[in-house]
Task: structure prediction
Amino acid sequence: MGEYTLDYLEQLEAESIYIFREVAAQFEKPALLFSGGKDSITLVQLAKKAFAPGKIPFPLVHIDTGHNFPEALAYRDALAKEVGAELIVRKVEDTIKQKHLTEPKGKFASRNWLQIHTLLDTIEEFKFDACIGGARRDEEKARAKERIFSVRDEFGQWEPKLQRPELWNIYNGRIHKGENVRVFPISNWTELDVWNYIKKEEIPLPSIYFAHEREVLEHEGQLIAVSDYITIDETDVISTKRVRYRTVGDMTCTAAVESSATTLDEVVNEIMATRISERGETRIDDKVTEAAMEDRKKGGYF
Amino acid sequence: MDILRFITAGSVDDGKSTLIGRLLYDSKSILVDQLEALEKQSKNKNADGIDLALLTDGLRAEREQGITIDVAYRYFSTPKRKFIIADAPGHVQYTRNMITGASNSSLIIILIDARAGVIEQTRRHSIIASLLKMPHVVVAINKMDLVDFSEERFNEIKADYEKVAAQLNLANVTYVPISALLGDNIVDHSETMSWYTGPSLLEFLEAVEVASDINHTDPRFQVQYVIRPQTAELHDYRGYAGQIISGVYKVGDKIKILPAGIDTTITKIEVGGKEVNEAFAPQAAVLHIADDIDISRGDTFARADNLPKVGNEIEVVLCWLDNKPLIQGNKYFLQHKGRLLKTIVREVAYKLDVNTLERIPAEDGVKLNEVVHATIKTAAPLVYDDFATLSDYGNAILVDETSNSTVAAVLLN
Result:
């Protein structure tokens, strides 16, 4: 190794910062889609570095399903304040009321699909031309094929067959009126890369990412937090377990894992040892059909 | 630990999917739930009851329509390296897919079926690798189990390929005899091919030196974004953000701003918000200069004693990637990193047959997957390097100004 070398995290960071700056340079009205999860927290950290000492030149947008972990919401508010970014929150609840949408029924009824309506309305309301998201290609096979600059039509739809070839590090963000681009700066990061980066940069995380006691019910091998948003049947067995979250989505569709890891080092060690994929272990929403993500993306999901 | 980005060239028939599946499986990158899903789907059971090719199975849209959407990216790591595989499908639209994948890779694995040897497809993959100046080539001679693991057959194919490599000036070619299906020489050394004493494929991928592929000699920096916070405490702050494309920049360096041609000095460098004395490729940096000069996105900072080319009439190689044909005399946008210039494709000199390297007349137009030599004229001077000498600053794309599609990969000369 010579004098001028970067390790893999530094290389990934440089690539992501480059992408962030392309977004700021090429678009009039970008937004960073912030969920409160570790991937979007990493995005905010990268954006801070990309524009330092200036502020992040676009708002953080949270599409609030109303089914969030309270810890994630508190973290969101504190982070927006710390980085001095504008925080825009739009609630799925409001869209449901205004547009008379039908809520999915069932035991773990998720507003994941309904989120798309609120997201597209928010894009329309603020005329966002680029929305930055924390999706990674290692998560899922639809994502493995999506571009870093992913052009969506005015319905937000992903059309895998019509994607632009993405050559070298040249990003073509030219779009027609009404279209917008979803940008994924951490496309080339894996779950473990994100954790190692969080550890290296000492990025604080919401407490639910570390082991804590929680009332959960066990459903088909997955541990779901007891909350007002799920239906509890008489036959359900509820117990208190020591758990942490590996991903943070809605309380209705994110499962916890049993864990005793209370520090980042311990979490990283557990993840390195795990033999189950992130989505497989923690996401109920992907289990519906094999092509669940592909369908959601075609419907406008990010 | 660093990153190796590589592309696998070959079709399903060559065992490409099986090879990628094998690398992921044997490096233990496949997790239990993914394996369970695979076991359910596997009809063709090889490695412990699963069909490794299914690991790279595509989208439902592709299965339904029997098509493959260009490049999928796959990830795995070992304690030595993180690997990013550009998995480009074979068959239809191959040139487009391969160029896209190769542009983001520093190594190519060319798969050869040991029974078939060097065929037209092998030549095509090699010509593209040579065109794109890929620094490392691995020729993986696969299906050795079907030729009785014969050393003689391996040597025969190797000798054939050496002729191709010599003709194309491919440097750094490595040959590995493998059986992706059985796992021979993929991660572990083959017991049946004890005559082969070189590294297994993964050992080679872990060890190949890629840090020196980055040019740290010729400093090139293009302004990507101007940081001007304009707050009370940072009132006079003006930093030029961009990626160091090649070379090293130091505080105190005398530089020229191009295309304007104005001289100035670097006064401060920041990386990730921290002040540093020097920055090098491929870091994302912020440079500050001594003089108050009108600078905007797309301007180049170079050292006065090491200048890139500046010109508006440029010979190029175009790899056409769009379904709409190239129209000579049409205007396009040339995007060179962050710089966007109106461009006319003036003259198409000839087409290059990517199977034979022959030059053929371009009278009947230029279509998808064709490679041509042409002259372009840009509306303002472009600051660039020859792709052959400094590929990182010698590449660009053409964008159709009406459809906004990326229609061509451009190698500047």
